[in-house]
Amino acid sequence: MTVELRGLTWDHPRGYRPLEAFEAAGGAPGVRVQWDRQPLSGFESEPLAALTERYDLLVVDHPGLGAAIEAGAVLPVEDVFAARDLEVWRSRSVGQTWQSYHLHGMTWALPLDAATQVCLFRPDLLTGPVPTTWSDILRMSGVLLCVAGPHAGLSLLGLAGDRSRTGLLDRNRSIEAIRLLRAIWRRSDHEAAELDPIAIHELLAISNELVCCPLVYSYAYYGTASGDRKPLAWSAAPRLRVDDDLAASTLGGTGLAVTRRAYDRVLAVTKYARGLLDVGTQLDVVSPVGGQSATAAVWSSGLVDEAWNGHYSATLSTLESAYIRPRFDGWIAFQDELSERVRELLGSDGDPAVAVDRIEADYRARVRDAVEVCHG
């Protein structure tokens, strides 16, 4: 007898092809998952509680965890899977992907897909060395910034998020970052102002003038040529300062969450997760179709790296030290507000110091105990 489950993922090939390929390869014995797709924005526009009435599995991102937990939409993985399975999956996860789904003492999703902001460029159009600092970017032409939606704010967080977790921003770094971003924005191509990371990859792959986007969530899928699309390449996120040790990047990616609808089918869910997250599946099924696995073995595989134009070796160091943003209930709305303020700063002569102080004050007002609520 086959147990039928329903899942919801995002509608880019990176989001659905790995799941469909796993099913086509035989999937998990005795379990079949019907995967539906929707745009990433759909996860924010429809209440999570409504989705859990229709789906057993959700592909989620960690910044929305607070809202998902508050809505009772997802189950802690500790309530679903055996401790030995969780330890295996945790030990196999790359960078801080596992930690990004840990909040309030529990883990709320299994890392499935890993990504962070890195430097994206056209290797055939790059005339000088690969940029390693934001000062290098300032001297380049053919640059575009990723500032649509939440991405302006996420760039600032990557460059200047408070790693001590006592607040939102490192004040001095934030002021410096805004000045640099503003200078680059005034010299950059603005045709990408409304484009998300996927669209930026698409644009850069077909343009003959645009060379580099210094900070954008990477898609290994674009490391190969296709039709008019040229292969893209990546490098570590540029450093704000030459002596920076940590990546100037904000962690992204997605995780596999289990909803309350699946509570009485945990054996089937466990069987499915074991099959999907198996290292062999991730290497031989997920990666060949353009999946961007959260399994560390994929990121260290020379064969996978070569297949996707060096994406993994070029960006691993950035992924491993990326900033994990807050995840409290209400963070998504604040993230959108932050991005709008950063966009306004890029196009104005407003004092960065005043703006940073206001952002920090508003953040602290929104969250009474930032350390405990935001970072678990």
How would you summarize this macromolecular structure in one to three sentences?
This is Multiple sugar transport system substrate-binding protein. The chain has 376 residues and is of the alpha+beta class. Helix content is 42%, strand content 12%.
Care to describe what's here?
Keywords: Sugar transport, Transport. This is Multiple sugar transport system substrate-binding protein. The chain folds into two domains: 3-113 and 254-291, 3-Layer(aba) Sandwich (D-Maltodextrin-Binding Protein, domain 2); 117-250 and 324-375, Periplasmic binding protein-like II (D-Maltodextrin-Binding Protein, domain 2), CATH 3.40.190. The chain contains 18 helices and ten strands. It has helices spanning 13-24, 42-45, 48-52, 65-70, 83-92, 97-100, 134-138, 151-160, 171-187, 197-206, 266-276, 279-286, 296-299, 302-307, 311-320, 331-346, 352-366, 370-375, and strands spanning 3-10, 31-38, 57-60, 102-103, 106-107, 110-113, 117-121, 212-217, 233-235, 254-258. The strands form three sheets. It has a five-stranded mixed β-sheet. A three-stranded antiparallel β-sheet has the order 8-7-9. Strands 4-5 form a two-stranded antiparallel sheet. Mean pLDDT is 94; it is low at 369-376.
- CATH C-level label of the largest domain: Alpha Beta
The tally of helices reads 18
Protein structure class? alpha+beta
CATH architectural label of the largest domain: 3-Layer(aba) Sandwich
CATH superfamily of the largest domain: Periplasmic binding protein-like II
| Radius of gyration computed on alpha carbons | 20 Å
Overall pLDDT:
94
Helix/strand order, N-terminal first = EHEHHEHHHEEEEHHHHEEEHHHHHHHH
Number of domains: 2
Question: How far apart lie the N and C ends?
Answer: 41 Å
**Total beta strand runs:** 10
> Looking at the structure, what is the overall shape?
globular
- Spatial arrangement of strands, main beta sheet: 2-1-3-10-6
Strand content: 5-15%
CATH-derived topology of the largest domain? D-Maltodextrin-Binding Protein, domain 2
Helix amount, in percent? 40-55%
Major sheet details: 5 strands, mixed
Low-confidence stretches: 369-376
